[in-house]
Amino acid sequence: MLSTLTNLITGNEETEDIDLYDGSAADILFLYYLNLYQANDTAIDKGIALSSKVYGAYRNNQYNTNDFSGIIGSVGVFQNLDKFEIADTDVSGAFKQLDEDIFQKLIYGEINALSLENGITGVILFIFNRLEKCDPENLNLEQARYYETLILAIDELERQIRLNGTHIQDLSKAMLLMAKITAKAFYPEIVNRIFVSIETGLKQTIHKNEAWIQPVKFQLLYHLWQSNLLLNRTAESDFYLSEIYEFENQRMHPHSFDLVSFNEIQLIQQFNRLYWATTDSYFNKAANDRIHTLTDNLSRNGNPLRKSGLTGISGLGLTILSGFSKECLTWDETILLS
């Protein structure tokens, strides 16, 4: 199956998108982790070609500044992973125009999404990566501009959660982002503002049973559990752990090829590694059963994955790899870890 997916990516010359959902950035992630799992010259060659393509698109400002669909997420790929050797990797230079686009959109209130992939949460991650190695007490002019942009982004985050609420999936990923940033323990006063806003929104949602919550509730519970674990909030961690058990026991196995199904399987596998560290646990078996269901459907129905990105070929590839290799984290954790 991995060979089939690799061939689909390496033989696909039609993908124009560079974003994480539907484009080449996710294909780079899959090829990188495939090469870690089993050395693969084809994966390396295609990964280098795709990396150069995506990096060049940023360097030459060839992206849709009116949409940002998956753009922030694909930037995270380059900020946090040394995947392939690229000839020209001036990250600051490549993303200079994107920096300005983000700043202007925040000033005029034009970034309305909250998500990690294309919204405020992604912007916060993007800027934190820029500021991570800076001394908060001794910022130069460029760093001070990033800090100003960060404050604008946090103001917008608080406003959106307070006034409009948001989708539970966006909140759960935002919580994971906060867990990672908090663990690094820099800019603590800013981190606390973000964490309080997101946690408030999540706690308002967790006990709801509406149908729209169910497909992403495992993500919510997992991220709350891991966040509290990292913050040493033991009682709350135990509560979310019990909720994870109860929810998973009630879940139907997914049969659809979509990002929710892929990501839920990956989170179950990651949860199993963090909590059980065994191949015999109930959660490992549940994840494997879901993968088999999806791959069986793929074999019986031909190839329903006719596009690149996390919602297509690479989404399934990363899901399968996450069960084989401890190196392969869930795709959103891959973006967040530096």
Gyration radius over CA? 20 Å
CATH topology: Glycosyltransferase
Molecular shape: globular
Oligomer: single chain
Q: How do the SSEs run, as a string of H and E?
A: HHHHHHHHHHHHHHHH
Fraction in beta strands: under 5%
Helix content: 55-70%
What is the total number of structural domains? 1
Identify the CATH architecture: Alpha/alpha barrel
Helix segment tally: 16
Record field, number of beta strands: 0
Overall average residue pLDDT:
71
**Uncertain runs:** none
Distance separating the two termini: 30 Å
Largest β-sheet summary: none
Q: What is the C-level CATH assignment?
A: Mainly Alpha
Q: SS-based structural class? A: mainly alpha
Q: Which features characterize this protein?
A:
338 residues, mainly alpha, Glycosyltransferase, 0% strand
Overall description:
The protein has 338 residues and is mainly alpha-helical. It has one domain: Glycosyltransferase. It is 66% helix and 0% strand. It has 16 helices and no strands. Helix 2 packs parallel to helix 15, helix 8 runs parallel beside helix 10 and helix 9 runs parallel beside helix 11. The protein is globular, with a radius of gyration of 20 Å. The two termini are 30 Å apart. The relative contact order is 0.13. The model has no long low-confidence stretch (mean pLDDT 71). This is Lanthionine synthetase C-like protein. It comes from Pedobacter frigoris.
